[in-house]
Amino acid sequence: MQTWNTQLYDGKHGFVAKYGEELLGLLDAQPGEAVLDVGCGTGHLTAKIAESGATVLGLDSSADMIAQARVNYPALLFTHTDIVAFDQPKTFDAVFSNATLHWVRDANGAARAIAAALKPGGRLVAEFGGAGNIAGIATAVQAALRDATGQDVPHNWYFPTVGEYASMLETHNLTVHAAWLFERPTPLDGADGMRNWISMFGGGLFARAANLSNDVKRQVIERAEAHLFATHFKNGQWFADYRRIRIVAVR
User: Fold this and answer.
1) Residue 30 and residue 18: Cα distance in Å, rounded?
2) Rounded distance, CA 57 to CA 70, Å?
3) CA angle 134, 108, 78 (to 5 degrees)
4) pTM flag (> 0.85)
């Protein structure tokens, strides 16, 4: 189970929302449209969508994220729900999702729910981790866990190929208009950027390791950081080896 430190998320990982702003151009939300923001986090992109004049509902499976979103933007609507379980009579002109769908292991269930949430002619605009995303970081953390605990711990992310994901959307009557996979090495904040990233986003890995104390977890993060220094620290800056899928589909 992934848990979230919302202060660390907003304080040191603002790049998640920053890069998501590029995706808003593809969404092109219009005044009066109804938009569902899947994986809204602490609400920053939900608020950007609302600035267009659209009516937006932010959805997230993390109660902590939703609580912080409501503090950040009390005038907006947020709901604590997993997208796979999302079911309501209202349908939307668009579903928007940034940096979320790789957390949803039941990808087929998520696609089914997204299709059901869209009006005929409604659009999905999404970006998330694709095949090969953070391969270096995941391998380093898994190796450090193996060295420290003797356990082989699988990661908990869903990183599909473009073909795999587009084909799945088509089974739910979503026509894929555009889909691409691209490299995006992402700078991390500060000298502790890599250990903060692993602490923030690696919780699911650590949760899968049996009997992992906080002290051993700290040792694992330090070992992984040391291993990654040669490949992920350049010119005084840590980088995460991101590969992203962007996709636009219409029901």
Assistant:
1) 21
2) 12
3) 80
4) yes
Q: What are 110-133's pLDDT values in tens digits? A: 999 999 999 999 999 999 999 999
Judge contact between 46 and 98, C-beta under 8 A. Answer: no
Q: Name the token pair of 27.
A: 């969404």
How far apart are alpha carbons 58 and 174 in whole angstroms? Answer: 22
Contact of 104 with 131, CB cutoff 8 Å:
no
SS (H, E, C) the chain: CCCCCHHHHHHHCCHHHHHHHHHHHHHCCCCCCEEEEECCCCCHHHHHHHHCCCEEEEEECCHHHHHHHHHHCCCCEEEECCHHHCCCCCCEEEEEEECCHHHCCCHHHHHHHHHHHEEEEEEEEEEEECCCCCHHHHHHHHHHHHHHHCCCCCCCCCCCCHHHHHHHHHCCCCEEEEEEEEEEEEECCCCCHHHHHHHHHCHHHHHHCCCCCHHHHHHHHHHHHHHHHHHHEECCEEEEEEEEEEEEEEC
pLDDT for 70-110, tens place per residue? Answer: 999 999 999 999 999 999 889 999 999 999 999 999 999 99
What angle (nearest 5°) sits at the alpha carbon of residue 94, between those of residues 92 and 98? 125
In whole angstroms, what is the distance from residue 72 CA to residue 153 CA?
36
What span, in angstroms and rounded, lies between the C-alpha atoms of 240 and 221?
A: 15
How far apart, in whole angstroms, are the C-alpha atoms of residue 215 and residue 246?
A: 38
Neighbours of 226 (CB within 10 A): 12
